Amino acid sequence: MIKKELKIIIISLVVSCLLTFAKFGAYFVTHSVAILSDALESIINVVAGAFACYSIYLSGKPKDEDHPYGHGKVEFFSIGFEGAMIFIAGCLIWVKAITFFFSPHELHKVDSGLYVIMGTSVANFVLGKFLVSQGKKAPSITLQGNGKHILSDAYSSIGLIAALGLIKLTGWTYIDPIASLIFGGIILYQGYRLMRQSISGLMDETDKQVIDQIVQLFTKNRTPAMIDVHNMRVQQYGSNYHIDCHITMPYYYSLKAVHDEIDRLENQVNKQIFSGDAEFFIHMDPCTSQSCPLCLVENCPARKHRFEGKVEWSRDNVLPNRKHDIEAIDK
């Protein structure tokens, strides 16, 4: 899978290089700061693509003594680096646009620049969609991040095409720096979003959507012996996940019976969500008399209290580090 991801990102890098040359060619012909803005962002595509190549290579290396969870975290560094580069490009675009107001210059061959940007916009849109699609299949946040950045480049080019069209029709050259300021703002926001995603991943921020998927599958594959689930934590390492949780089961179950139950649950969750790329660490808690009102085991030989109700698992009650009690039924 890693070899496939590397091939994809290398293709992206080559295409980005060609499109960057085309955009700079259009800038030298037209002297448009808006086109220069687009070209500067394309340089970021190239630099980010090169860094993504290395991060994908590194994330594919096997676990070792120094990295017991693998090297997947480097992908968060990758998108953080890309976000920072995008943010810097946005600042440079604003500086160039503001400079134009104090030192305006004439534009040339706007129609030629218009055609070049139209072609590069279509190419970026196709490339971006391809990267995002492949990144979701992998899954690879590096491919997805790179694809989203290239898509933002394609979308901003649509506005650039409109601006160049207006300049050609009206001759108002001040549309050029105004459009550049708008594009710079869009690029700054995109850079911020990628840096925010990078920080979230490095800080192991809870992905609520993934948690909900896991809880749904736990519920779907629940057996009467699974009395309680709590203290769930999910960490992402590139395309790999590490899942911790506590499950309460009857204290009189044999070690083999407990292992079989958990092994079946792990296999189902891995198969249906993570394609085998999730590592589980499930701590087993023996039931106590407090568990009896929630226990679904029929004819339990150790029951101290009658069954009162079933706890429906949700993100709100599986994340805290506490066992469920009868009050959880009413919540």
Structure characterization notes:
By secondary structure, the protein is mainly alpha-helical. The chain has helices spanning 2-30, 33-59, 74-102, 110-137, 141-170, 175-202, 208-220, 255-274, 315-318, and strands at 228-237, 240-249, 278-286. The protein folds into two domains: 2-202, Cation efflux protein transmembrane domain (Alpha-lytic protease prodomain-like, Up-down Bundle); 208-330, Cation efflux protein, cytoplasmic domain (Alpha-Beta Plaits, 2-Layer Sandwich). Helix content is 63%, strand content 9%. A three-stranded mixed β-sheet has the order 1-2-3, with helices on one face. α8 (255-274) links the parallel β2 and β3. The protein is elongated.
Sequence-ordered SSE layout with sheet pairings:
Elements: H1 2-30, H2 33-59, H3 74-102, H4 110-137, H5 141-170, H6 175-202, H7 208-220, E1 228-237, E2 240-249, H8 255-274, E3 278-286, H9 315-318
Parallel strand pairs: 2-3
Antiparallel strand pairs: 1-2
Helix pairs in contact: 1-2, 1-4, 2-3, 2-5, 2-6, 3-5, 3-6, 4-5, 5-6, 7-8
Tags for this model:
transmembrane, transport, 9% strand, three-stranded mixed sheet, CDF_Transporter, Alpha-lytic protease prodomain-like, 2 domains, transmembrane helix, mainly alpha, ferrous iron transmembrane transporter activity, 331 residues
**Name of the level-1 CATH class of the largest domain:** Mainly Alpha
Number of domain units = 2
* CATH evolutionary superfamily of the largest domain: Cation efflux protein transmembrane domain
Order the strands across the largest sheet as they lie in space.
Answer: 1-2-3
Classify the helix fraction into a percent range. 55-70%
* CATH topology-level fold name of the largest domain: Alpha-lytic protease prodomain-like
How far the N terminus sits from the C terminus, by CA atoms, comes to 44 Å
Strand residues, percent: 5-15%
Structural class: mainly alpha
User: What Rg do the Cα atoms give?
Assistant: 27 Å
- Residue-averaged pLDDT, rounded? 80
Count the strands?
3
pLDDT under 50 segments (min length 5)? none
Biggest sheet architecture:
3 strands, mixed
Shape: elongated
Please report the number of helical segments: 9
- Could you say what the CATH architecture of the largest domain is? Up-down Bundle
Q: SSE order in H/E notation?
A: HHHHHHHEEHEH
